Amino acid sequence: MLGAGLLALAGSASATAVADAPNAPSVPTVPTTPAAVDLLSSASVRVPFPKPVTLRIGRMSGPADLDASLDEPVLLFSDFFSDRVSIEWVEIPAADAADTLKRERPDFVLAYPSFMADAAAAGITLHQVAARKTAYAESAGHSVGTALVVLDARRNLRTLKDLKGKRLAADLPESITELALLDRVRESGEDPWHYFGDIIHLSAAYPNAVAAVLGGGVDAAALPTCLLESLERSGLVAPGLLRVVDGVLDGHLACRRTSALFPDVSLYAFDWTPEPVVRDTTLALLSPPAPSAGLHAVTPGSPSYGWVAFSPGEDLTRLYRSLAAGPYKYLREYSPSALYERYGTYVNAALLLLLWLVVNEVRLRRLVSVRTQSLRKALADRARLEVEARRARARLSGLEKRSIVNQMSGMIAHEIRSPVGSIRNFAAVLKLLLARDGNTNADIRTALDGIDGEALRIAGIVDRVRRYAKAQHGAQVPCDLVEIAQRALRALDLSKTDHVPVVLDLPERAPVKGDPLELELLILNLIKNAAEASAESPDAKVALSLAEISPEDDPAGCARIRLTVEDNGPELSDAGFERLTAGFDSVKPEGLGLGLGIVRGIADSHGATIKFRRRPGGGVVVDVVFEMLVENEESDDADEPHESSVPSPDAPNSAAADAVSPPGAEPSRRA
């Protein structure tokens, strides 16, 4: 709290109480004027505060406005008043001073003169009642400053320049003691905020800052003026142990100092303060027993402070403005360098973003030109792909139709052979019975011969149908299942606008021997069936993969390629799964089972095995295993010309015509 005492008044009207000291510098005393005599006479006649009263005094707190010396008048402030006066101290935070003053409405406030500008900006008018002045100063306007002290043993630290980049101890951030020293650095042409290597704030100059420099924790300490002399006179610090750097001793202050001198704190009244309270407070502060006036040396037991009627604040305002501190801190915070220091990361990010936008704009303009050309090419490619899609659909449709005809022809031929054989057997039995019974009826024998002949003709037709079905298989050549799978996917994409996504897991190559068109149809049918089966699932997808089976993993010791198509459709019942694996029945209500029949037929014609298995969680996995084509077989087959026997979809099918010729007609012959 504001502690070392308000015991002296020096200045105008002999109102400063100080003690005489030997060898003090000679300064002029204030003459006794009639005005001064009148003031003292009126003071001697009127007794301040004749009735009990409570004074509410605000004390500014916060490192931006006060230093440790501001706490010193509080403890002894009541010594200037009689017992009839009670003092209630109101803490006024510097960060919210204006609002707190309006809310608390104290009678007075103890603050530095620079606060008048802040209060005026907030609509509060301050009236100076009295200014505090140290007894060791000539005037209240030049009363406080900074003594920069170092250990006298450190002879390398003689001037302020020697302390550049060193560690400094101070009381509070941006206190008058610290700012006065920084202003001295500014006057030397250096950057005050980056001159010292590190400034350590220790709350109080004594004992904290003094102990830090004595213990070697810092290189120097910023002390309030006259504190070092008081400590030496009191025996707390050995004389000569500490030295003031660039110390100045002149007629303004009876102590060595490093910085310029500035006004001390003042007591201010408000517009709402009652006039009698202001008058009695002024009389109480300015009416102690009058000591001798003038400048006094620091001696043990000498009074520290007094009060005078007026103190100018221009020097303190200049200090704050030059350092952009206190009420002018915004000048430092909003300067370009301060803004960059505080928001450098954001500024760099913004510059990088701006640079990226510029580069991106150039890139976009370039891309527009490139994309325009690409769009033209894409449109041409799309037209070409549509033509290819139509051709692919026509080719696959023709192959699918022929496969269906082959499947049905083979099935019908297989089923008819047994009844035809039975008919011929029955006819032969009848002939034997007629011969045994000696029946020579010519009509009956002619009828039996006709039955046997027509049955024989039916058997011939069945044989030709079977030979036709076998003849429709194309020539098998070396091919790559990876390329065939990709063609099947392209055909699927071109044939449908929306479909279930297909996840691929394909190696670089999967060489097999077969008919590329039939293999494409096999893969396409498997993918279509899987997509239709999983279409109702919320996350429907189909997985298509090709994997090599090494000879060691194959029972026959052959290298093979496994084609796997997997869907995540609903789980099949046991009956549905049995229909799927047993034969040609479809598990779909509207299906005929021809798609899987085509798949089985193509797999059989290529010597491949097909296997169905349930997928955990629902769906079906189809595995088709082909024999892998080794390199030497692939090269041998490549040397031999191959010609596909698959007829064009538009070519007339004479064999089919023969297969469906009516009874009695002769089958057509080929040249």
Mean pLDDT: 76
**Which strands sit side by side, in order, in the main sheet?**
2-1-3-12-4-13
CATH topology of the largest domain: D-Maltodextrin-Binding Protein, domain 2
Low-confidence stretches: 1-45, 62-73, 289-295, 589-593, 641-671
Largest sheet: 6 strands, mixed
What is the C-level CATH assignment of the largest domain?
Alpha Beta
Structural class: alpha/beta
Report the strand count. Answer: 20
Please give a handful of descriptors for the protein shown.
671 residues; alpha/beta; D-Maltodextrin-Binding Protein, domain 2; 4 domains; five-stranded mixed sheet; 18 helices; transferase; HATPase_C_sf; ATP-binding; two-component regulatory system
Task: Explain the overall architecture.
- The structure is a single chain.
- The chain is of the alpha/beta class.
- It has 4 domains: 12-142 and 262-333, D-Maltodextrin-Binding Protein, domain 2; 146-257, 3-Layer(aba) Sandwich (D-Maltodextrin-Binding Protein, domain 2); 352-471, no CATH class; 477-646, Heat Shock Protein 90 (2-Layer Sandwich), CATH 3.30.565.10.
- Helices cover 43% and strands 17% of the residues.
- The chain has 18 helices and 20 strands.
- Strands 2-1-3-12-4-13 form a 6-stranded mixed sheet, sandwiched between helices. Strands 7-6-8-5-9 form a 5-stranded mixed sheet.
- The model is unreliable at 1-45, 62-73, 289-295, 589-593 and 641-671 (pLDDT under 50).
In short:
With 671 residues, the chain is of the alpha/beta class. It contains 18 helices and 20 strands.
